[in-house]
Design a protein that fits this description.
Blueprint lengths: L1 H5 L2 H16 L32 E2 L6 E5 L17 E2 L1 E3 L15 E6 L18 E2 L5 E4 L2 E6 L4 E7 L3 E8 L2 E9 L5 E11 L2 E9 L5 E9 L5 E6 L2 E3 L3 E4 L2 E9 L3 E10 L3 H11 L5 H16 L2 E4 L3 H14 L4 E2 L6 E3 L5 E3 L6 E2 L1 E2 H4 L3 H8 L1 H18 L5 E3 L2 E2 L8 H10 L7 H12 L6 H7 L10 H26 L10 H12 L7 E2 L4 E2 L2 E2 L2 E2 L7 E2 L8 H4 L7 H8 L2 H13 L5 E2 L8 E2 L2 E2 L18 H14 L16 H11 L1 E2 L7 E4 L6 E5 L5 E7 L7 E7 L2 E2 L4 E3 H5 L2 E8 L24 E3 L3 E2 L3 E6 L6 E5 L10 E2 L4 E3 L3 E9 L3 E2 L3 E7 L42
């Protein structure tokens, strides 16, 4: 071909033909780029500290993650590996990347020499009898490949993968006792397992386990490159004579003769469907024994994916951080489907989806913020597959996923953030899924009565006694409801051609309903303190500290959650009294010397003041200065976070990786922008760190970002141009990006306050009348004074004392009053134009006695149970110990 290309017309013809071929298949020319992006990827980033990543071999979004296991317990063992460890227990085929709960590590193999020892010897700390010491000096990890020398026996272990098959290569010293151990008891609680010896080179089996996923079933089909001379199977660590066996504690050892430096290979395919599915996966994806080809193909596939964003001009550390982050965003979600299209649904039945790919591992509370918005840019096709997976969950399990794992809904974390992913895709015009079905699924998830939703719909907020994490759930439900409102408006525009009356239109009615719900956050904003604050029995919880981590928040405190209104930043600014007050509060968040107090929460890390970058609720906050007209503050803080909290080393992530979210924040921010409000296709500017970055889009276009004079000191935007024209907005639209073009920044070392004249807006049309607050002693002996306050001075307060629903015809509140009997006080705020608020209720109880109690051991602030009198105040706690009614 080289001779032809060099020979004039023939060469031009071949080049033109190649161009037509690539174009016909929708492949960008960069698919065959010569740049090796994998050289910048360090899979060990995040394996130390609390990053919870793993270093082993996997394919982009692959079903197999073949990696060493160095621990099986505790929080920092969530991925099965921690860089501080020095012992490898084996190599298993499934791993979670960056989660805060352990699971997976299924189907563990381990090579050894000598008499196999299944159990750890008495007095040893190791959890099995075949573990080996290792050194990081003899360990290598690159995308699609992992190797390590096992010190105890001198075995060199290598592994690579296809999407559904793990490929092991073990180099042994000369021995007549070369063992490869299979352990089906490893890690999680085993519900059932089985092994069948097909012949002297082939085995098949399964493992059903319970952990985070309540029932995870993995079938496997494995082939060895040479016949084993002997096999021993152990049940409950006792050898049994059998070629097929089932049980809850099964292990086996396959014994070979090995010459010096002989390589014995093992191919292990997995399936959640059947052993036949695993066999088909193996024979389709690795039909031969060419380890180097599989390794090379994996590297090529990774380079294809990593080349979707080409950055240049950065330091070695920046390039490593960037491509390692991009790599981590492409580990999960994982394929959950065999090569024939079969997969197991939430209903545990086998289904077939031949036209798209079914996935698992949806850490949506984390990934809706940046990872999924990133996918809408560089992975539109997979975004469609993700959403179609969501819709199958809805069909098979009755609702959209919250935190799905291996065909199980774990219900971990809060909100119904699948609607955020769907709404964002719809807002960006991504096609390939049923918009109407998605909308119905979103509404269904929002209308359920679990996890505080019943109280949310009844009160307009969640109170402490209703549900734990009441503030966080209220705020995140409100954001989710805005996403549903966006979906309704998009469907209205699609399905309404010409002049259509808005009155009675179902999409407009739904839009109005969910826009109203999206404002419920206002019911928890305390104007006196300037914080989102938990409520109980119609009143603010007291004492209150914004830096205290309590059961009213999800992995955070009031400092962080007071800024979680991404869908109505303008409304939040209004609550603070305008831009100046809002930015002053933001400044205080980042500069306060308050320290964390309250519950021990290891997720809250990466602190700048009370901003905590190590956990997701903070991730959008630095960009909020844009909305208040001070983008230079965003630029300064974003660069600080990029430089200080991401390092090219094992302890290089400031918090859990969380299936790509921590890394996705870095990618978008390093490019110079971030989507504060997924569902509104607008990117706010931060500060780019690379002189040039190219985003190669699936539509064949390229969006280039240039940052002239960018450096460690030149972090501020002096000017901006979009496609050659001055760009005075501190944001740009998704449409601008997808159309291709050039975004140019000129960078400088001092804040520039006069270039941008237009700022992003995130606001809600409509006005919610916030609920009043009833302040009185919940329990009293003779009488108590009742004070009712109103957050909106433009509304009046009306109340009742007989438990009836108040209206504008009830008693108007003008001043505090006294009650001397057990009373249910109900109140509303009312305005002629805006209407009335939800009713708020306080049950005030007159004690039938004058008891007192002397406490010899002071209760914890997290479990006051209502104070000293909580033990006999007549209020009983629910089964939920975190609801505020327990004392301990």
């Amino acid at each position: 071909m080289k001779q032809q290309i060099r020979s004039g017309k023939h060469g031009l013809f071949l080049i033109f033909s190649l161009f037509l071929l690539l174009t016909a298949y929708g492949l960008p020319l960069t698919a065959f780029a010569s740049t090796d992006y994998t050289k910048y990827v360090n899979p060990f980033i995040g394996t130390g500290g609390h990053g919870h990543t793993f270093p082993g071999a996997t394919m982009p979004f692959g079903a197999v993650q073949l990696s060493p296991d160095t621990r099986i317990d505790n929080w920092d063992g969530s991925s099965g590996y921690h860089y501080s460890d020095s012992i490898i227990y084996g190599f298993s085929h499934t791993h979670l990347s960056g989660t805060g709960i352990p699971d997976y590590c299924d189907i563990l193999f381990m090579p050894t020499i000598g008499e196999p020892q299944f159990e750890a010897k008495e007095g040893e700390k190791e959890v099995n009898g075949y573990a080996s010491k290792f050194s990081h000096a003899n360990e290598t990890a690159t995308p699609g490949y992992y190797s390590v020398k096992l010190d105890d026996d001198g075995i060199f272990a290598e592994m690579t993968t296809t999407k559904r098959v793990g490929f092991h290569r073990y180099t042994f010293p000369k021995t007549d006792e070369a063992n490869i151990i299979l352990d089906l008891k490893w890690r999680d609680k085993v519900l059932d397992s089985g092994i069948e010896i097909i012949n002297d080179r082939t085995i098949v089996g399964y493992r059903a386990s319970e952990s985070w996923a309540k029932k995870q079933l993995v079938y496997f089909y494995a082939e060895f490159s040479k016949p084993f001379k002997e096999v021993k199977i152990a049940s409950d660590n006792k050898t049994v004579e059998a070629k097929e066996i089932k049980g809850k504690n099964l292990k086996s050892v396959f014994i070979f003769d090995a010459e010096k430096d002989e390589q014995i290979l093992v191919k292990v395919a997995i399936s959640a469907v059947s052993p036949q599915g695993a066999e088909k996966n193996l024979k389709t994806e690795i039909p031969d024994w060419n380890f180097e080809k599989v390794r090379s193909d994996a590297k090529a596939e990774w380079n294809k994916e990593l080349s979707k964003i080409e950055v240049s001009g950065g330091s070695v550390a920046q390039m490593t951080n960037f491509y390692s982050a991009l790599y981590h965003t492409m580990i999960a979600p994982n394929i959950f489907q065999d090569v024939d299209g079969n997969y197991v649904g939430l209903d545990k039945d086998v289904h077939n989806a031949p036209k798209d790919t079914n996935y698992t591992v949806f850490s949506l509370w984390d990934t809706f913020r940046a990872a999924h918005p990133l996918y809408t840019i560089i992975d539109e096709k997979r975004t469609v597959d993700f959403i179609n997976t969501f819709l199958r969950h809805y069909e098979q399990g009755g609702r959209l996923p919250v935190w799905e794992l291996a065909g199980n809904e774990t219900d971990t974390m809060i909100g119904y953030h699948a609607v955020s992913v769907i709404a964002d895709a719809m807002a960006k015009g991504i096609k390939g899924f049923d918009y109407k079905k998605a909308f119905e699924a979103a509404k269904h998830s929002a209308q359920l009565d679990h996890f505080g939703l019943e109280a949310y719909k009844k009160r307009g907020y969640i109170s402490m006694e209703d549900e734990q994490e009441s503030v966080s759930k209220t705020l995140e439900y409100a954001y989710n409801d805005f996403c549903i409102a966006q979906m309704a408006m998009i469907l209205f525009r699609i399905n309404s051609s010409g002049y259509v009356s808005l009155i009675g239109n179902p999409y407009i009615q739904d839009h109005s309903k969910y826009i109203q719900r999206s404002q419920y956050y206002k019911n928890l904003f305390d104007k006196q303190t300037g914080f989102m604050r938990p409520k109980k029995n119609g009143n603010w919880i007291s004492p209150f500290l914004p830096n205290e981590v309590t059961f009213n928040f999800t992995e955070g405190n009031s400092w962080v959650y007071s800024f979680f209104v991404p869908h109505d930043v303008s409304g939040l600014i209004d609550l603070y009294g305008g831009n100046a007050n809002f930015t002053k509060k933001l400044d205080e968040l980042f500069t306060t010397d308050q320290k964390l107090t309250g519950r021990e929460q290891p997720d809250i890390t990466g602190l700048i003041g009370q901003y905590a970058h190590g956990n997701e609720p903070s991730h959008h906050i630095a960009y909020l200065y844009n909305y208040a007209g001070e983008p230079w503050k965003t630029q300064k803080l974003v660069r600080q976070i990029l430089d200080e909290f991401y390092k090219p080393e094992p302890d290089g992530l400031i918090g859990n990786e969380d299936c790509g979210q921590m890394s996705a924040w870095y990618i978008l921010s390093a490019l110079g922008f971030y989507e504060v409000n997924p569902s509104q296709p607008v990117y706010s500017f931060g500060t780019p760190i690379f002189p040039e970055a190219k985003i190669n889009l699936e539509n064949g276009k390229t969006f280039t970002i240039k940052a002239k004079n960018v450096s460690e000191k030149n972090i501020y935007i002096k000017s901006a141009k979009l496609n050659g024209k001055d760009h005075k907005k501190s944001f740009f639209a998704h449409e601008n990006l997808m159309n291709g073009g050039v975004l140019e920044f000129e960078m400088t070392g001092a804040p520039v306050k006069d270039w941008f004249t237009e700022f992003p807006v995130s606001s809600i049309q409509g006005k919610l009348v916030a609920v009043p607050t009833i302040d009185a002693n919940r329990n009293f002996t003779n009488e108590t004074i009742v004070k009712i306050s109103n957050p909106d001075n433009w509304a009046k307060i009306f109340y009742t004392l007989d438990g009836s629903e108040p209206s504008e015809k009830s008693i108007e509140y003008t001043k505090p009053f006294t009650i001397s009997e057990t009373t249910i006080v109900k109140a509303i705020s009312y305005n002629k134009v805006s209407g009335k608020s939800f009713p708020v209720e306080a049950k005030l109880i007159k004690m039938p006695h004058d008891w007192s109690v002397k406490l010899f051991s002071k209760y914890n602030r997290q479990y006051t149970g209502g104070g000293d009198e909580g033990l006999f105040d007549g209020v009983r706690g629910s089964l939920n110990f975190a609801s505020g009614e327990w004392q301990g």
